[in-house]
Design goal:
The chain has 251 residues and is α/β, with parallel strands linked by helices. The protein has a single domain (8-249), classed as Metallo-dependent phosphatases (Purple Acid Phosphatase, chain A, domain 2, 4-Layer Sandwich), CATH 3.60.21.10. It is 31% helix and 20% strand. The strands form two sheets. A six-stranded mixed β-sheet has the order 4-3-2-1-10-11, with helices on one face. Helix 2 links the parallel strand 2 and strand 3 (84-87). Helix 1 (22-39) packs parallel to helix 2 (68-79). The longest helix has 18 residues, at 22-39. The chain is globular.
Length: 251
């Protein structure tokens, strides 16, 4: 993609809409919708890097209730011709084809390469990447198994949705205070993952979410690791102007 002069690419991650309750997340949703309304004026594309919702599961004919303002704004922006790309996170990993069919927004379940103005990007949510975290990796394989999803669909939505929401909040999958501490470059799994990838291929930027902690880390003088933070504590997002990717904070 070549970015037209005066246009930008925006990146956002980890809104966790619906948590800890629908009512309590409404002010965050209002800020996000207002932000979307502002950036549509100069956006060449928008990347949403997962955990937009604290829980999302698509039954054959049912999706979770709520988020009308967010979905409506995304539909409006997409209908105007601005590309939007969605990467599933660990909270919305059960997303299937609703966004694609209803909003014309492609959905990716793995990290993907992009090139903008000759700059190479590797973009994804970031969960399960890098060394260690073996417990989560095993759990993710179970949750994403087609048989597991088929069995879960047998739960009536009035049971399945509130049950999953309860477990999501109870298990602190919204980042807690301890989760937002920088561990050091040698212990941050996504930094290790990015450096390992650079051994075989050059990327100018690695862009991830998941950690809920805004980070800009120089990897080797020519590559950077960017973590987008979240819309719970930090309200941070990424902006690429065609030459450089920077983290910014909502005013």
């Amino acid at each position: 993609m070549n970015i037209p002069e005066g246009k930008k690419i925006y990146f956002s991650s980890d809104n966790h809409l619906g948590a800890p309750t629908q009512e309590e997340s409404k002010p965050r949703e209002a800020k996000f919708v207002k932000w979307l309304d502002e950036i549509k004026e100069d956006a060449a594309a928008i990347f949403l890097l997962g955990d937009l919702f604290d829980f999302w599961f698509e039954y054959k004919h049912v999706v979770p209730k709520g988020f009308v303002r967010t979905l409506g704004k995304l539909a409006e922006i997409r209908d105007s011709g601005i590309p939007i790309y969605f990467f599933v996170g660990n909270h919305d990993l059960w997303m299937h084809d609703y966004f694609e069919k209803e909003l014309n927004i492609p959905v990716f379940h793995e990290a993907k390469e992009f090139e903008f103005n000759t700059k190479k990007f590797l973009i994804g949510h970031g969960d399960g990447l890098g060394p260690d975290d073996l417990g989560y990796k095993r759990m993710k394989k179970v949750f994403t198994n087609p048989v597991s999803k088929w069995l879960y669909r047998w739960l009536h939505p009035d049971i399945g949705v509130p049950l999953a929401k309860h477990l999501s909040v109870k298990n602190k999958m919204i980042s807690g205070v301890e989760d937002q501490k920088f561990l050091g470059e040698e212990k941050e799994w996504l930094i290790q993952y990015s450096r390992k990838k650079l051994e075989t291929k050059h990327y100018d930027y690695f862009v991830f979410g998941h950690r809920h902690l805004p980070m800009e880390i120089d990897l080797n003088g020519t590559s950077k690791y960017i973590n987008l933070g979240d819309w719970i504590s930090h309200y941070t997002f990424g902006v690429f102007d065609g030459e450089e990717l920077k983290l910014k904070k909502l005013d």
